[in-house]
Amino acid sequence: MAEVTGRNVISGQGPYIRMITNRTTNLLIRGAMLFCVGVFLALVLNLLQVQRNVTLFPPDVISSIFSSAWWVPPCCGTASALIGLLYPCIDKRLGEPHKLKREWSSVMRCVAVFVGINHASAKVDFANNVQLSLTLAALSVGLWWTFDRSRSGFGLGVAIAFLATLTTQLLVYNGVFQYTSPDFLYIRSWLPCIFFAGVITMGNIGRQLALYECKVLQEKIHQD
Q: What stretches pass through the bilayer (predicted)?
């Protein structure tokens, strides 16, 4: 009887087990949480940029109390969800387990450092854009080294930062918004560093959410 019960628990006969082992449900829940985090960070960080007059939106697209175009938070939220879901999948595919100890406190520190890097880009006055770009590049790589250190994390960070920078170039070129004092074609040269740090941050949040679900499943199976 015990053996049969064990088989039923592992195979997901109970409603709770079926819910947390359903891959589609898990992805939707994690995606929704990552989307909300991305939207929140987009609103806060874009507020810093607008207040400092680093980013300028045309008056006809300023439609929120945060002086941000309506499409910015949803786009950032969608990108955050995709990145946060992609990182655990890549880790699993490559068989590259995360070597650092994963705790929510570490993830929160990573978010705090990311916000600090954005704050530095908007608030701290540097002698020139080259000095600012080099400083933010060092801080972004330091964030990866402190909270990630995986080859997949670094590679995805660079690739997504490149694509995000290219997309931003196209948006600015088409007049959707603009940067003050652009020094890298139409944008600021430090923007790829911000994108890279953001990718690493959302990747860590996505990994932690995936790890948390695995722990919940293991604990439930053990208790039953």
A: 27-48, 68-87, 130-147, 154-173, 185-205
